[in-house]
Amino acid sequence: MNTIGLVAFALVGSSKAIREEFDVFGITIVGLAMAFAGGATRDLLVTRVPLALQSPIEIGLGLLGVSLAIALSVVLPSPDTHPITLVSDAIGLAAFTTTGAIVATEAGVSAFGVVAIGTINAVGGGAFADILLDKSPFILFDDFYASCAVFGAGAYVIAGTVGASGSTAAGVCAVVTVVTRLVAVTYDWNLPTVQGLGLLNH
Amino acid sequence: MNTIGLVAFALVGSSKAIREEFDVFGITIVGLAMAFAGGATRDLLVTRVPLALQSPIEIGLGLLGVSLAIALSVVLPSPDTHPITLVSDAIGLAAFTTTGAIVATEAGVSAFGVVAIGTINAVGGGAFADILLDKSPFILFDDFYASCAVFGAGAYVIAGTVGASGSTAAGVCAVVTVVTRLVAVTYDWNLPTVQGLGLLNH
Amino acid sequence: MNTIGLVAFALVGSSKAIREEFDVFGITIVGLAMAFAGGATRDLLVTRVPLALQSPIEIGLGLLGVSLAIALSVVLPSPDTHPITLVSDAIGLAAFTTTGAIVATEAGVSAFGVVAIGTINAVGGGAFADILLDKSPFILFDDFYASCAVFGAGAYVIAGTVGASGSTAAGVCAVVTVVTRLVAVTYDWNLPTVQGLGLLNH
């Protein structure tokens, strides 16, 4: 799952950079940032050297995603919105949320900390890629995306609280994340804005 | 003071996100980022796990600020510029500058490092919130805000140098920060730009 | 070399902030961010307290660069594109890449990690300054700049692999970085975009 996620995340990041007419260095950096910045932030928060700087295989997977984005951009206008990419991205979201929740638990943070680090691991890379592209992170105003990571990591915490083993909790986290994400994509879920709730009377 | 600051900072961040029509997840994240990103950056700089990830009470205060922003937005167009918010924000600025200066002193950095970490603790959250909103951090070109933290942390260093106890230095820091900030708000102080100084002759 | 680099980087960052009409606090912060954020990120990635927070001399050099930017802006429209600045900046790029590669090697990361940390040390400050100015980092779509750091750090890794001593490898890194940068500036090199390669047929 982690393998699929790294390739899919790098592909999505690079596709966005291609659309903004970044040069090949920029395309590579945005792709790698999307794939690795979430995990690197997770590692910084628990004060350890980012794993991506130590594992050549992971970087290879990221570069594969970057290459795929460039190759596919020749034939497809938006390889990052292709159904195969959306499913791979959902799998990556689940894998990254689960890894983050496990690392956070080992670091001994609070229940909120576990949800926060799981979510940051999953969506931090995408948020950082959007900042590099000079946009607001899309997760903050569009789509039902980061919420899936919050639900997944929340399910992980609850499973652990009711006595599930670590691997059961991890499985629950991955399933909840990927299922809510695929349902959200299928039915085009969105969170409301305050304006959308019709509450403002000024 | 720290309690008031967390609520006020989260309220200000969330109010900005509401104005940009972010969804409720984005509103929550920008509010929490404004309240906690400065302290988290401080903790990363002295290489320890961010306190906010370990303390459920602090997160509760942040979420209270987010809820207040949503509730108040129904009746007020700009709850973040209400006089009560401005005073609470000044108190938070002072509390965060003082905490940052104390943590930095314990970490054994230089006098410049103490001022830098005190200021980052106080204004880093607001700067990060503005980046999430795809703006330049307001502290860099507007208002007399970060300067108050610089003065407060500078007073802390001077107090320590002339032999004041830790708690006296902390008190001096808090008073200098909150007083300069309230005076700056009252008299609408601004720092000059190079253009404003009328120096450019090209 | 490091001395020249700190002054030149701070000068370039502050010049950009002056052009955006930031106030004097903002000008100072963007200049210091450009000079120190790359090294601070390097230190965070290998989990140590940033050196800049411990060394008053380095901060003094950064503030000298900020002052030079303000002074020169009175007589020059763009001190950051003056030939002397471009050469000093290239020297700084080489010094920072070399320092980053050495620190990364000591931290025991992979070959990719050495290139990544060398490059981040060299260009991370400029990228962060651009984010503060609410722009996409210029290194991602313009110019042949970060690539010089990648080549330099790559040469460092190769030199180490074929048995060169640490100081020889450092010398090779610095020479490769500064020479490729000066050649790139002279001949106005650019990396292609995917669009520029004429590959897109949609």
TrEMBL record, chains A, B, C:
Pfam families: Gly_transporter (PF03458)
Domain Glycine transporter: from-to ranges: 2-72, 87-159
Organism listed in the record: Halostagnicola larsenii XH-48
PANTHER family recorded: INNER MEMBRANE PROTEIN (PTHR30506), UPF0126 INNER MEMBRANE PROTEIN YADS-RELATED (PTHR30506:SF3)
GO CC aspect terms: plasma membrane
Membrane topology of this protein: Multi-pass membrane protein
Keyword list, A-Z: Cell membrane, Membrane, Plasmid, Transmembrane, Transmembrane helix
Protein name, UniProt field: Glycine transporter domain-containing protein
Highest taxon of source: Archaea
Compartments, as annotated in UniProt: Cell membrane
Segments traversing the membrane: 27-45, 57-78, 84-104, 111-132
Chief location category: membrane
